[in-house]
């Protein structure tokens, strides 16, 4: 389901109060948490899980056509509806050649084509196309995707190995590559990007993230990330980072986020530092969180408003201030911590 928070009728103006979430239950909750943390409230929306029965649906109105779960292999009839702006052909049997029929619609803004048989997302160039959603297909690359006005590309649950495009698309503001095969982002270069979703990939390093100077939301849950290198003070708009079930193991790594002047929400649930294992099925957090660890994180990053799913309380802030004083008196970087970090860096480099 579309989660872009941009007004599709005016691509230059983001809607500040809405996020439409993905259909996967846990991912939807993560996205809702991000929006709640940044804006104080989220958009209520019925969430459809994989377990629920999906019935065929055919609906056509003045600007939108929905034909889902109908086992379609040919949609040439859609060419007759030249007025359409939004089309949804999810849960069918369409390949790219069949889907190209939508490119004959002169005013099309959004195409939703989850769960088809798409091996490429290279639709012919369209004048107004702003949102492409092709989750759960068979995509291995997005290199040949080009739409001059594209602002949102959602291609989760495919087999894509890198985020790379042959042609630049300067209007892109939201990229969603959840659960693909991406290993690194060092070449990523989208200066206008607002939201980046990379959960469930193979990423070990966030070096390259510093290029995304307008980034506001970074979601990298369940990646083998141990070291939090790559962040710098130029990421002034970055407010929300989700590192749930990553491999962050020490407070020293958390302290590297001090360079981020606008960071308000940090998710570390499931990381070794918080007592987790870094595995996706980890149920850390069912019991009450370790309050001492929350205070350590808050002392390291005093500007935080939320840690994991809980808002920082006045009591935690008071304890954090006392801990900061203690660190100053004792010397923040003791020998044991430095040795531990050196070993971690060496092991990561060896990997």
Radius of gyration: 22 Å
Number of domains: 1
Taken from the alpha-carbon principal axes, the silhouette is: elongated
Number of helices: 6
Nearest-integer average pLDDT:
84
Largest sheet entry: 13 strands, mixed
Quaternary state of the chains: single chain
Total E-strand runs: 13
Instruction: List the uncertain runs.
Output: 1-23, 40-51
Side-by-side strand order of the widest sheet: 1-2-3-4-5-6-7-8-9-10-11-12-13
Protein name: Jg5658 protein
Biased composition (Polar residues): 1-11
Keywords: Leucine-rich repeat, Repeat
Biased composition (Acidic residues): 15-27, 36-48
Could you please describe the fold and organization of this structure?
It contains 6 helices and 13 strands. With 351 residues, it is α/β, with parallel strands linked by helices. The protein has one domain: Alpha-Beta Horseshoe (Leucine-rich repeat, LRR (right-handed beta-alpha superhelix)), CATH 3.80.10. The longest helix is centred in the last third of the chain and has 17 residues, at 314-330. It is elongated.
Question: Could you give a short description of this structure?
Answer:
The protein is α/β, with parallel strands linked by helices and 351 residues long. 19% of the residues lie in helices and 11% in strands. The chain starts with 24 loop residues before the first helix and ends with a helix.
